[in-house]
Amino acid sequence: GAVVSQHPSRVICKSGTSVKIECRSLDFQATTMFWYRQFPKQSLMLMATSNEGSKATYEQGVEKDKFLINHASLTLSTLTVTSAHPEDSSFYICSGLYSGVKNIQYFGAGTRLSVL
Amino acid sequence: LAKTTQPISMDSYEGQEVNITCSHNNIATNDYITWYQQFPSQGPRFIIQGYKTKVTNEVASLFIPADRKSSTLSLPRVSLSDTAVYYCLVMDTGRRALTFGSGTRLQVQP
Q: Nearest-CA distance from A18 to chain B in Å?
């Protein structure tokens, strides 16, 4: 299957700082990427849809000014958590949409964010 | 969006065949059924996708009846490493987003 690389795998930061997470599709072009958040023992929740060259579409309840998404190329999307607070601590996962006859999302390994 | 319903958990033993059934009564004509596997602290891994009848790959089979209101993921001869959460999803081709349900937590014992 297609490969999506996510970096960093884990980050610990102080409250009030900003954190950037990168998501790269390594062997395919992903015009659409998705960002999810997952709390312990819970399912994945879609945060936003990222389209190359255009503004991201955020799900209801997700603050676009807090979670900045940039999709500047066909293989890279970034999520910046601005002014992070302890309640932002979570597991963030990105995926790239492999478009063909069937649309399949391939996921990154995830980023564990801990805000102190 | 078509909602899916699957068992919260299942237990099995090594070497057994495991069948996980998912219900999706409101599936749309253009929707595909996709299954993912997730280990703790990892991103979901694509297992298999199908539209109707039967699909088989090197790791699993997917059975979809004619009415497409349900599907069954079949894992042949499971091992301890198959212990994970399995998600059944219906692809909303228009929006291309996935809505994850609670998944099925499979525990394989020796």
A: 22
From first to last of its 116 residues, chain A has per-residue pLDDT tens of 789 999 999 999 999 999 999 999 999 998 899 999 999 989 999 999 998 888 899 999 999 999 999 998 999 999 999 999 999 999 999 999 887 767 788 999 999 999 99
For the stretch B12-34, pLDDT in tens is: 999 999 999 999 998 988 888 99
Whether omega before B65 lies within 30 degrees of 0, making that bond cis, reads no
Contact A103 B93 (CB under 8 A): yes
Q: Which residue has 């601590």 as its token pair?
A: A89
- Paired tokens of B32: 């595909």
* Residues across chain B: 110
**SS3 (DSSP) at A94:** strand
8 Å CB contact between B78 and B18: yes
The whole-angstrom distance between A82's CA and the closest CA on chain B is 23
Chain B residues whose beta carbon lies within 8 Å of the beta carbon of residue A34:
97-98
- Cβ-Cβ contacts under 8 Å, B43 against chain A: 4, 6, 93-95, 107-110
Residue A25, min C-alpha distance to chain B (Å): 14
